[in-house]
Every structure is written in structure tokens, then in C-alpha cells.
Amino acid sequence: MTELEQYVTSYFGILEAEELAVISSLFKPEILKKGEYFLMTGKASDRLSFIETGILRIFLATENKEVTQWISTKGYFVTDLSGFIFEKPARWTIQALTDTTLFTIKREDYKRIGVLMPKWHELEKLFIARCFTILEDRIFTHLSMTAEERYDLFFEHRKSLFNEVPLQYIASMLGMTPETLSRIRKK
Questions:
Q1: Inter-CA distances, 172 with 29, 154, 182, Å
Q2: How far apart are CA 41 and CA 63, in angstroms?
Q3: Pairing state of beta strands 77-78 and 37-39?
């Protein structure tokens, strides 16, 4: 099984080999250089990608600051899901923090999967449910954990990011100021 097929399986569920080959054939390799944008707020969110290598930051620039929603790494998918599914302008800007290699499917090809594979709609529901569950988990941690507990949990699962991305991005994603993050790290 190729790396792309493993990503597709991890997000969409177990597929027959032929079905997996059909879906995988619709994804094309794409490269972003450090600093390049995958998507800008307000633009059409017309592609979904799995990250093969590299790091992407999903954020929103407000009048006073930038708010990091997520930092995506190898094995994660990336898009503005609301924009991609409902064809609305993107809410998020997505920028490469490192040179990044992606497997990308365009929205038109994504929509074709349902025609090519009848059971796709059931698998897509599972994909959306997985996205929703991840979001619920993030909301739960923000509502029920202290800043220090959120930091500890994130550090436990994504320790390498602390050496790969600016700490203010991690602080923003964890819902704290850089000063709070610094104070927690000193403990």
C-alpha cells in the first residue's frame, strides 16, 4: 500500500483494492516552497490535500493579531473544509512553514468519486464525522483543561514541533499568549 493509499484509508475507511486505486489516481503530487500559500482567506477552497512531508499553518489574520487554528504535518489532510464542501470563500489562510509535498485532489475530482464508487457517500460521512470528532476533542480540551494541561498534552503528542515552528504559533493554537507559553515551559 502506498503512502497516499494509507492516508486515504486512515481518513475514509477500509476500501477494496480497486476502489482505493480509483480514489488514489485522482490525487496529484504538489509541492509548496516555504512561505508559499496553499490557500488565502476569501479565496475558493477548491482542493483537499494530504501532507506527505512538511508543515503547514492554518490561521486567520484579524485586525490585531494572527490566530493559528492548527499546524498540520505529515499524515494530516489540509483544506478549509467548510469552503471545500459548501463552495464558500475560505475562512482560513494556509501557508507552508517548510518546503512541503502534498497529494492533492481538486473539488471536481472529489465530487466525481461518488459517481465512480457508489458506496463513497457512506465513506464520506465517516470522513466528515472523523473531522467533527477531532474538532469536538479540541473544543473539549479548550473548555476543560488549564493552559498548562493543554501544553502538556500537545507537547506529549507533538514534541518535535517545538523545534520546527515559531512558538507564538503554538501558543496561539493552544489558546494562550506567548508569554503564558514561555512561563509554562520554564516550569
A1: 30, 13, 12
A2: 14
A3: unpaired
Residue-wise pLDDT tens digits, 64-76: 999 999 999 998 9
C-alpha cell recorded at residue 27:
490525487
**CA–CA gap between residue 63 and residue 83 (Å, rounded):** 22
Q: Which helix (H) or strand (E) holds 7?
A: helix 3-12
Phi, psi of 47 (to 5 degrees): -150, 155
Question: Which secondary-structure segment (H or E) carries 156?
Answer: helix 147-158
pTM of the model: 0.90
Contact partners, residue 176, CB within 8 Å, separation at least 6: 147, 150, 151, 184
The three three-digit cell numbers of residue 91, written as one number: 475562512
